[in-house]
Amino acid sequence: MIKVCRECKRELDLDQDFYTNKDCKDGHTPTCKICYKSSRKDYYYLRGGRETIKVSSKILRDKLKEEVLQHYGGVCACCGIIESAFLSIDHVNGGGTKQRKALGFGGSAFYTWLRKMGFPEGFQVLCHNCNMGRHVNGGVCPHKR
Prior knowledge:
By secondary structure, the chain is mainly α. 46% of the residues lie in helices and 11% in strands.
């Protein structure tokens, strides 16, 4: 099947020269692979290149993490540490690994999921030490023994 690229106006093979995209009417990008790559590269450099994008992405991830931590209390539920660099979200009744595998993601994508789901119950803030302590001690932090 033949399709005309929106950018270069060449007639090209639909399946070989265009990327698939389920959001487009015919299931393929409106521009050919060459034009698509070129436009993405231009966009990338207009945004400041790799370092700028890495910094802005980190800022957004940090804001998201802070929002989620604050919603769930902002301090370690076990030892009271408040430094966000040491804090993470913990499943109150365990099962974090099982849930991450079922969802197919973890990290900042998990924080996005929590916000999208309206901050469901069953989660708490723990520092990494308390979280790992619970993991290796059958669900009980060493502080509680």
